[in-house]
Fold this sequence. Notes:
The complex is a heterodimer.
Chain A: E1 7-18, E2 21-32, E3 36-40, H1 47-54, E4 62-67, E5 70-71, H2 76-80, E6 83-86, H3 98-109, H4 113-130, H5 136-139, H6 149-159, E7 167-171, H7 179-194, E8 198-203, H8 206-212, E9 215-220, E10 223-228, H9 230-237, E11 240-245, H10 252-263, E12 267-269, E13 275-280, H11 285-297, E14 304-308, H12 312-320, H13 342-356
Parallel strand pairs in A: 3-8, 3-9, 6-7, 7-8
Antiparallel strand pairs in A: 1-2, 1-4, 4-5, 9-10, 11-13, 11-14, 12-13
Helix pairs in contact in A: 3-4, 3-6, 9-12, 10-11
Chain B: H1 2-10, H2 12-21, H3 32-49, H4 54-77, H5 80-99, H6 101-112, H7 115-120, H8 128-154, H9 162-190, H10 194-210, H11 223-231, H12 233-246, H13 251-278
Family (chain A): Belongs to the ABC transporter superfamily. Drug exporter-1 (DrugE1) (TC 3.A.1.105) family.
Region (Disordered) (chain A): 323-374
Pfam families (chain A): ABC_tran (PF00005), DrrA1-3_C (PF13732)
Amino acid sequence: MTSPPDLAIEAHGLVKHFKETRAVDGIDLVVPTGTVYGVLGPNGAGKTTAVRMLTTLLRPDAGTARVLGHDVLAQPDAVRSLVGLTGQYASVDEDLTGAENLIVIARLYGFTTFAAKRRALDLMEAFGILMEAFGIAEAANRPVKTYSGGMRRRIDLAASLVMSPRVLFLDEPTTGLDPRSRNQVWDIIRVLVADGATVLLTTQYLEEADQLADRIAVIDHGKVIAEGTATELKRSVGAGSVSLRLAASGDRPRAAEIVERTLGAEVVLAADPYAFSARVPDDGADLAAQVLPALADAGITVPEFTLGQPSLDEVFLALTGQPVDEGDEDGESRPAGGDGDGGDRSTRRGRRAARGSAPGARGEPSSTIDGEVA
Amino acid sequence: MAATQTEVITTPEAQALRAAISMDQHPTRPSPLANTLTFAWRALLKIKHVPEQLFDVTLTPIIFTLMFTYLFGGAIAGDPETYLQYLLPGILVQTVLIITVYTGFTLNTDITKGVFDRFRSLPIWRPAPIVGALLGDTVRYTIASVITVGLGLAIGFRPEGGVVGVLLAVVLLLVFAFAISWIFTILGLVMRTPNAVMGVSMLILMPLTFASNIFVDPDTMPAVLKAWVEVNPVSHLATAVRALMAGTATFDQIGWVLLASVVLTAIFAPITMHLYRTRN
């Protein structure tokens, strides 16, 4: 142990290539114990690759990483005994029941058969209480393949909590979950951290990072492009943004001009000829409130008006000067096979596509005046 | 954020969760053997939940034994019953070896589904997931052996070596099957899909099992084929299994099989483990 124990994770200059792609291109992370650290970035930014290196699943090409003072390369076993990992894709055995999945893990940690069974049922029950309507006694004896996506996620999470890990890595824990399941996962994370664990979670949603994380690293193309608390990050992007949709497209030039004048910020015209948006400048919350009256005075009808936190798109736009690059998945979509698992990847990508359409998708407004959204 | 946390923790749900997650004492780290047996148990659970996977294991030996006995028996040995005495130990060998390809198939399935990532992130004896799976597979081999020998006995197979001879023959076969499985674990780790693993494994097994002395005495074969048949480890295995069942086994015959098993394991197990450890 050469690094102070008050750091749960310490990584310097982590690099990982896959063929010609630099999936992770020199990442530094410092995570104090007992905190939640959010790694925010789009698909293919290198989040999963970074997590896989920190959890000893992947050897870095360069750089060093320590988890609670243990080097991931020199002392992988010590690291493994301290961390829990919940990957991006539920890594539970679909043929086995939920309880059996947990019992296998508990047995591997050294629980006796009896203690393993108890631990499995305790965890399932606790998770069941959190999710209320979930008939746990029945579910315990059904194969995981009959579970819903949210239930699989929770079993997966329970599997990584069998040994109460000191550091928990959660790779996009709520991607594809409905809002209710997502809140339950958030509650679990909060309880864990309150009990002294450290959590590193990756996410595509600014809101999630904002809700949970003490500090956030924004990564793109394998590099950390911004780091700080949620407040600091948002300040760098502006207080938020307003999005409007007009009743008549002919009003747009006039409306845009009024909004520009009111907020003192440039508007961004949407592809939809009725819509446009604008960033609310720092300490401009009052100004945003004046937008609607100003438009009403001009006789412009605004059926949809949304005032929201900056979306990940806007954070990216502000930080990189360009929108999120959606096409590049290569750096990251290799959870199992680094060397181009063709068939494997296509199925994963398919699943991801299915999940992408779930509620809670990126840029979901956090507050609306519309009354129809959210 | 501190406020939200406190709020969360005082709800009864959160307290229950907290109680479930927290642990009074940590169990001591289990031995490599205990880890391995847990994985073997997991393999058995999979058989329990997906009994369909035993279809091949039960039907293949029945079809092979009946088909080859009555198809070739008269032509090769004059009558099926005489041929059965020669064929049955061989068909047992072939049946079990064909089932070994499932090892690579299931390993690859685990990998593509991400289950292996979890195992690799646990503080356990590293070879345990693979060795345990191989041990679990021996249950399948045993089932297939029981069916083959049982059917053979029912249609007239009369081993001179008695119960002990037959049991020893099956044990020797299991040892060899375990050893050759390491080839398929390598395929399971390097191939992209479970089906590709299956295809290539079959390609390897075909010349090993058919170009052997399982079905006929190699004396009638052309020189080149005969030369291969005589070095083919599967021929040595079939000879030893036959001899054990007939009660005429020599140390040489058994020794060759054990040597082949050791060599196969010594070469392919380390390659498997290297691939497993360095897998991206």
